[in-house]
Amino acid sequence: MNHSSLSPRRKAYAIAARLLLYCSAAVTCGLLVFLIGYICYRGIPGITWELLSTAESVLHGTVGILPALQNTLFVIFVTLLIVLPLGVGAAVYLTEFARNRRLVSVIEFATETLAGIPSILYALVGVIVFCTALHLQKTLVAGSLTLVVMTLPTVIRSTQESLKTVPQSYREGALGLGSGKWHMIRTVVLPSSIDGIVTGCILAVGRVVGESAVLMYTVGLSTAMQDFSSLTNMMKSSGATLTVALYIYAKERADFGIAFSIATILLALTVLINLAAAWAGRKLKRSCVLCRKPFSPPAIWTSITARPAP
Which pTM was predicted? Predict the structure, then answer.
């Protein structure tokens, strides 16, 4: 920006605005670095192989979080397995297929409203619907289904906004070449909006990993090892996740050393899952571009173009 053509008052405003922006960025980054550094400083010394590979036992005198770690990974896997197809499919329908724009506006308003509801309300819904009405009791499956309901609006909105950023000319060009509606969406629209889908996945993972209120009411507080060897055992498994274990050690037992160690593990787990999601998104986008089959035009178009000019 050329400041020589500005008046002294505008120069002062520009400098003050820039200083405010720099100060805001510095304060935000400073708080983030301080929180992460303090948690790691208090938590890393307590992370041992015994903590990660054993279960809590009074008889053996061990303090382990392996059951909570397994429960957390199970809940993340089941939640993403259900919420991603539902969320992406709903976003594709609302953006590409729905014709009643008033109904679409109502659904968009509803999803935006549901995305801001406190998690304790979702916990009560999970207890009433999944634990009681569907007779799932307090199990990891009930907690995962509750988290699906909680994260579904976020996935829908992020995917929908990403689909809207795809230029309309891409759709018109594919349809003009004779592509079908679904073929156009699968080969043109979705690969162009994969970044937004990955963003929705990362947001869902972050909310699932950091959720405690929903899981405390729907999965129970057990710290025993669960049996995932069969589908029946999976449906009946019940136990605390890392966030619930963090609450137990910090609030009920006042063991802040273990609590900070669990918090550090949660940070590392979130970073690893986010990096994996970003890497998978890049690979998927690249594979969609490289493996896209060349388009073969309809036979009628080939016959027309093959006719000799008069």
Answer: 0.80
